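call fold(seq) -> C-alpha cells
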Amino acid sequence: MKRLQVNDASLENMLETLLKRSPNQYDEYQQKVTEILGQVRAKGDEALFAYTKQFDGADITKESIRVTEKEIEEAYSLVDDGLIDVMKKSLANIRDFHEKQMRKSWIDTRDDGVILGQRVTPLASAGVYVPGGKAAYPSSVLMNIIPAKVAGVERIVMTTPPGADGMVTPVTLVAAHLAGATEVYKVGGAQAVAALAYGTESIEKVAKICGPGNIFVALAKKSVYGHVSIDSIAGPSEILVLADETANPRYVAADLLSQAEHDELASAILVTTSEELADRVEGEIEGFLKQLSRADIIRRSLDQYGYLLVAPDMEHAVRAVNEIASEHLEILTKNPYDTMTRVKNAGAIFLGEYSSEPLGDYFAGPNHVLPTNGTAKFFSPLGVDDFIKKSSLISYSREALEEIHEDIIRFAKAEGLTAHANSIAVRFE
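ret:
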C-alpha cells in the first residue's frame, strides 16, 4: 500500500490525480462496448448467443436462454438448507428496510377549487444485472430485486452470465426465486444490457436497468441511458476507513481487505490521524495475507489502489473523506457519531468497530448497490425510489384560473409564446 500525507495541496483533485479513481480512466473499453450494443440491437438473439459463446463458452439457444422452473427446483436441491435459511433472514431485513422508503401519492385541495397532487406509480418493468465470473453474488440478487418488488414492479427480469455448461450458479437462482424475479435469462456482459435496453426475440425490453457489473457492463449501461433508465454507473468496489488512534488496527486491516478481494481494480483506503495506526495496520495486513484464499487478487488490488493517507488532524482527514466520496465508509474514531456529522459524501456509512462493511453487504438491510468512483457526491444507494415514477396532478376551477389568468398571459408573452397565452385567454373571452 502506498503511504501519502494529506495536506491542502494533495486534497485537490485527489480522485483524478492521486488515487487514479476517476471514471475517465475507463474510456479505452468504450469501442468494444459500442460494437456489442450495435450488434445486439441489429441482430437480436443471433448476436446475443454468439457473444455468450465467445465470452462465457456457453452454447445458448432460444430454447435454453430462459431459466426454467425445473432448473430452479434443481438449484434448491443443490444449495445447503442452512444457507437458504440465512438468505431468508437477510431478505426479511432488506425488505423491512426498503418498505420504510415507500412513498405515497398525495392530493392537496384548496377552498378556491384548486387541486394539486402527486401520483406515485411503480415502473412496469425492471432489468436486474447480476455479475458472475470470478464469484457468485446471491447477495446482489436480493439487493437489486427486493427494492423493485417492494416498489410494486410487476415484471422483474434478471440476467446473469452462465457457466460454460450453460447453467446459472444454483445459489444465484435460489436467491432470484426467493426475492421474486419473474424471469431469469442466461446472458451477461454488455450484451445482456443491450438485450434489456433494446429487446431481442427472446428478451423483451425493460423500463430500467440496475445492478453492478464489470467495466463493460458499466459502460454499456451508460451508453443505453435514454433508451432506458439506469440506476448509476458502478465502478470497482471501494472501502475507506476513517480512523484515529483509538481504532483497533486488526479490525481496520481486516475491513480493508474485505473489499480488496473483490478484484484487482478494487480500492482500499485508510485515512487516519495516527502514523502509529498506519504502521500497525500494514503489519496486520501482511499477517492476514498469509492465510486468505484470494491473497493474490488482494495484493494486486493493494499495489494499485491501496492507500494509507495520514492527515495532520481530523479536519483534514474528513476533507479527504468528502473528496474521495467512497462507496463504503467505516468510521472508527473515539466518537464515530460526532465524526459522522461532518461527513457529506459516502455511499454507506458504518459506525463503530462492530459495524464492519460485510454486515452491509449481506445482512443489515440497507442496500449494498452503492455509488462508486466519487459519484457518492451526487448519487444515492439503490432503493425503492429507483423503481417508481411520479406524476404531478393539477386541477383548477374557473374561479381560481380567472384570478391569475392575466399573470399567466403576461408570463407567456414575455417568452414570445403567444399560443400559450391564447390557450389561457380563450377561456375568458
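The chain has three domains: 2-23+236-368, 44-103+125-230, 399-428.
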